[in-house]
Q: What sequence folds into this?
């Protein structure tokens, strides 16, 4: 059985349209580090026009403190804005040596209860899925059944 973790005490933060050049992520995370915020699941994707979206999770209790910090640093680095999704949950599934099979099983289980994955980050050890909070418990239950 794969180990499944559930976290509904998180906020998905996205720095929108930041310049895709070296040093931008360092500047963003340096500003955040001054506020003792825990960061997990960092994801960056390159868009057209030399811009990227940089996203990550923070703990919900830090949201009020981090909104002005994130907005300020987004402006400072020339980003197009920042968004905060509070109605999300993170579901983590530990992967075994047969990671392709485990991922297939995970995707099938989530699809069977109509849970859409908003973002996924996978390594050889685990897959972290960000899903809508309204469907998160359905997804968790489906995964527990699939991996029992």
A:
């Amino acid at each position: 059985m794969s180990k499944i973790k559930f976290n509904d005490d998180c906020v998905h933060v996205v720095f929108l349209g930041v310049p895709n050049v070296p040093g931008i992520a360092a500047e963003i995370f340096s500003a955040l580090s001054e506020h003792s915020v825990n960061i997990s699941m960092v994801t960056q994707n390159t868009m057209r026009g030399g811009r990227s979206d940089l996203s990550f999770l923070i703990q919900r209790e830090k949201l009020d403190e981090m909104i002005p910090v994130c907005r300020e640093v987004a402006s400072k680095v020339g980003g197009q804005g920042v968004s905060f999704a509070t109605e999300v949950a993170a579901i983590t599934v530990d992967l075994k040596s047969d990671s392709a099979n485990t991922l297939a099983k995970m995707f099938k289980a989530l699809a069977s209860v109509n849970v859409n994955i908003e973002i996924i980050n996978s390594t050889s050890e685990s897959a972290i899925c960000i899903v809508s909070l309204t469907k998160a418990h359905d997804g968790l239950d489906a995964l527990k059944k699939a991996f029992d």
